[in-house]
Here is the input.
Amino acid sequence: MKTYLVTGGAGFIGSNFVHYMLRKHKDIHIINVDKLTYAGNLENLKDIEKNPNYTFVKADICDKEAVEALFQKYDVDYVVNFAAESHVDRSIREPELFAKTNVLGTVTLLNAAKNAWETENGFKEGKKYLQVSTDEVYGSLGKEGYFMETTPLDPHSPYSSSKASADLMVKAYYDTYKMPLNITRCSNNYGPYQFPEKLIPLIINNCVNKKPLPIYGDGMNIRDWLYVDDHCKAIDMVLEKGTIGQVYNVGGHNERNNIYIVKTIISFIHDNIDATVDETLIKYVEDRKGHDRRYGIDPQKIKTDLGWYPETTFEMGIIKTIKWYLQNKEWMERLTSGEYENYYKNYYKM
Ligand code: NAD
Ligand code: DAU
Here is the structure.
């Protein structure tokens, strides 16, 4: 039985990953370590909280003692580091927090794993650290071309710069100590359990509440969208089959501009749920500072080397996602009203 230490497992991708892995593998133990920031939500994991193959630990990845204690208590095989401050707009307002969590937290985790796994002759067999990184570390593309693993890092926001800095620390642990590790760099994810501050759930939530739909700048910035389960599948495959020390880009060639995304959501809700929701809700607002124009991943390496391919088309995934949020309006309501903070204090008696 393999033991996975998953950090940030109460967040968007982390909680989808925990679900994905428990569905797919019967013989694993997942330890979910999460600080439960505003973005961490144990409600996302309520259906599996009593699963004997799952353990939740509330801890901060920057807390050296707490992290080392985890490696003493459990014989961890895989570390999957999702824990991060993840929202670009917040990073523009609060860069120090991003440096702390995303860089210092990563180094704290790397070091604890190294101390637990290193032997006189290298590292124990079967161990691996996986850093969940992002395509944003490559910066912004013009009209042509794609991000490849060899594309130089050129991050712009405090968020992407902190993720690139973390990637360089991860690289250093391979180059210096030959620690068994991989980095994945995925494009924009969408799907259930994403905090409604990010474009897709924010627009759905605002449509539901008939609030203005804020579009930054001219709405023509392009993101490369991937359904979250396809990202989870890629991480699972990189853990199992990825060549030690390698970086893998993850993406499904689903480039769409922001205005297209917003109009797709409006049109589905207009046609199926509420005909009063229409494009008059769109409100062009001031552009994000340093707003990257276009992201586009070249996923050839993970496809050729590991046999990964995305299973959910954008057209299927976006409808599935809109329906999920519409069926979980109270979840969105709790998160956006701040009510969840009290909810968890009572729920977990913390
Ligand atoms: P999220 O903000 O939804 O979740 C982050 C989780 O980390 C939360 O549960 C939060 O409580 C936890 N956390 C934050 N600080 C912590 C700390 N100090 N110690 C322990 N836990 C802490 O983020 P997400 O969108 O799920 O992203 C997860 C990871 O994937 C991030 O590393 C992000 O950079 C990366 N990523 C995200 C996307 C995307 O489109 N969302 C794409 C590529 C990569
Ligand atoms: O590319 C991967 C990255 O995708 C991840 O590393 C980040 O953690 C994740 O947050 C995401 O970053 P983006 O900045 O691309 O996502 P966001 O949803 O914040 O914005 C998507 C696009 O929509 C971007 O061009 C900004 C625009 N936008 C966003 C919001 C919240 C708007 O026009 N209006 C909005 O209100």
